[in-house]
Each structure stands twice: as structure tokens, then as C-alpha cells.
Here is the input.
Amino acid sequence: MTIKTKNETLADVGAGLCCIIPPYVLDHLAQSSDAKTRQLAIDAIANSSSMRAVRATLAMMPAMAAIPSPAAKRHRLVYDLKNGEFNALPGQLIRSEGDPKTQDITENEAYNYAGSTYNFYKSVLGRNSLDDHGMTMISSVHFGRRYNNAFWTGEQMCYGDGDGQIFIRFTKSVDVVGHELTHGVVSNTCNLVYSNESGALNEHFADVFGTLVKQWRKRQTVKKGDWLIGAEIMGPGTTAKALRTFKAEKAYENDALLGTDPQPKHLKNKYTGSADNGGVHINSGIPNHAFYLTAMEIGGKAWEKAGQIWYKTMLKLTSTSQFKDMVQSTTESAATLYGNNSREHKAVMKAWKSVGF
Amino acid sequence: MKIRFRQTGGFGGLVLGCDLDTSTLPPAEAQDLTRLIKQANLEKIRAKPNQKARDLQNYEIAVESNEINAKVSLDDMSVEANLEPLLQFLRRRARAIPLDS
Here is the structure.
């Protein structure tokens, strides 16, 4: 019989649980809709001997200690924060994998687009979720009140509802969902440091695979794709067509609420200040445009060749990779996949040259 | 007292900000702002930006006066409760601005 003293913490109780409950039951309990049960199970898993062995390594990695899915395949959990913020995460469990849709469009979009992103990575790139081991994809919706953002915590996605003027709900664009989940993929692969050029590459990969999820979902050719990020989440108070565009144009100019799109599309215009972690959302415009030029030059569907080159590169880069490493690695990846001096190889070289490399 | 506020990052990568001077604000607003700055205790803030999160909004707040000279940089996940009212005040007044202005 286990006696819980008043000084015991949840973690202490969880440590006890790991000894008396089989792992598969803990996995199940970790998905419980009851917050206390869920926390106990997660603590128990975290305190198991196997976790202890890798904890030192995990502590040094920005990648998350992934919650494994029960069957190591597609597994989505959607939580509702009901306007709560960080201290309320993840919120109330609303929809688990296989559950029927709810009455809330935001919850259903988070669920459906996480599914599209999983399916894209699995069928196009052969990757089983963010960690390639079937990691559960957790989304929390209705973050804060009139909150103008979506973000990746290192463990899960969070989506605000927007203020109704600049933005509406952030789940409405599948490329936003694909972008946030790709941050999870990057954390599990090259794990690019989130500042300056490596941070801009981190944002770049998130935009590339976010837009590829959208084009793949619609089965669009490069000519049919809109090459916009966040087009569906823009509110009625702005004239912006989107937040970013892969094309040479600006996504917005002299807008009363947003000002002018700050993204450069050529190396000579690279931002060198300290804002935005050294311009991670700004300078990503340079490699974004190079990807667009590559895809347009190759033609067809962007995920079939350009996307393969970029994914192979994501797996090869390191956390401190810079733009020049990206140029070199995509060029090498194109030659490896399609041959030296192939059309694809030449398209990559031409694209980088066009943006200043 | 002069206050410089900049908000960058977030999924949208928007660049917003405002520059305020309590000597030119309406008295009630200036009084409110002075109170919120005192409550925020900016000089004691030792923000630790979250290393794992992505697309968080980043904030820079700089305050200059005879009594306070403080500059803090932090992100959404490292905002402490006593700073939140000041951030709300500044966010309401922030507008789109050119980079590094």
C-alpha cells in the first residue's frame, strides 16, 4: 500500500506510478482528459529509469522530450485554452485522434491541418511525425484574448484567435499550421540556433514546408500556388494580401496597421540589426525567394523535386549553419538526387545566384 | 521620462513600436504610465529568453529619466506578472514602424 504524505509532490507520486503501472497504461493515462491524471502519468514517464538515462542529453537539446503516440503513428490531441495563457497550457482536451469533429471550427482546423501536415511528411518525405518516431502532435487553441500570434513552445503548437482587425484565427491557414509543426521537425533535425542567419534558415524551412503542405493538399503546380504565407488569417482592417510572399513582390506596402513588408529578397538588402533575434523573420525572405525561383525553374509540383532537395538539406545542416552552408548543401543535395549538371542542379545554382550568392 | 518600446517577431514578424514622453502625454496617462513603470521594476528584471520556443513575440523596453535608466529585452514566455500591465499599455499604443527606427 502506498501512503502519500503531505510533502510529496506530483513528481514523487508519478515516480511511484512508474513502478506499479505498465508503460502502455501510462501512455494511455498520459492522454487522459483529466489534468491531474495526465500530469501524474507524464511525471511517471519522465521519472522512469529509461528517461533518467537520457535526461542529461535532453536537457542540452532545444528539441522536446516528445510524448510518444500510443501506436507510433499519426496521433493528434487538440486542447482548448478558453482564453488562458502560458500557465494554463495545454488546456482542456477536446479532441483526440479519431474523435468526431466538434462544434468549434478552430478546434477542427487545428486537428485537420495537423493531420495534413503529418500526411505530407509521411507520404512525401517518408517522415513519421516531427521526431520521425510518431510523436504526438499537440495543439492548444483559443490562446489568450484577441491574441495576435501562433507559436511553437518547444513541445506543442499554440494558436491565438487574432484581434479581429489585423488577424483572425491563426488556424485558418494550413501553411501556418505546417509552419509551426515544421519548427518541431527542425528542432529534431538540424536544430538551427534561433538567431541571425541560422535563425533565418529555421524560419525559412518552416515557411517552405508550410507552403508545400498547402500546395500538396491542393495538388497545385508551382504556377497555381499562391506562394503566400498566412493569406487566410489576415483581418478586415488590413490591406495586406498575406504576411509574407516567396515572390519578389511585397506582401504589403504602406498599410495603416502593418506598415511595409520588411523582408529582403536579395543578400545585398540583408537586415543586420538586432531586432527579431537578428532578423529571423526578416532575412528568411532571401532563402524563401531562392526556393521559389528553384521551384519555378524546375516546374511541375514543388514538393516532388525542390521540396526533396530542401528536405535532404534540412537533414544535413547543423545548428550553426549559415546562408553559405545552405547554398552549398542545397547545391550538393540537388546533384546527389538528380545528377551533376542536371536541370535541378542548375536550377538551384541559378536561384542562389539571383538572390546574391 | 522617455520610453522606447519595440515589438518584433511573432509568427508574422511584424515590426511595431512607440516612443513616449511623459512630459507630452495627457497628465492622467502620464501618471498611469509612471505608476506602471514603477510597478514593473525594470531594473530588477533578469529576463531569460526561452531557448526552445519559436515565433514568440519579442519586446524591448527602454526607460530614461533622472531616476531610472533601464533597458530590458524579453519574450512572451518570460514576461513576469508585474510587467504585464506595462506591456499592455505599450502594446495598445504600438504602431507599425520601419526597422531600427
Observations:
- Strands of chain B lie at 2-9, 16-21, 57-64, 69-75, 95-96.
- The radius of gyration of chain B is 13 Å.
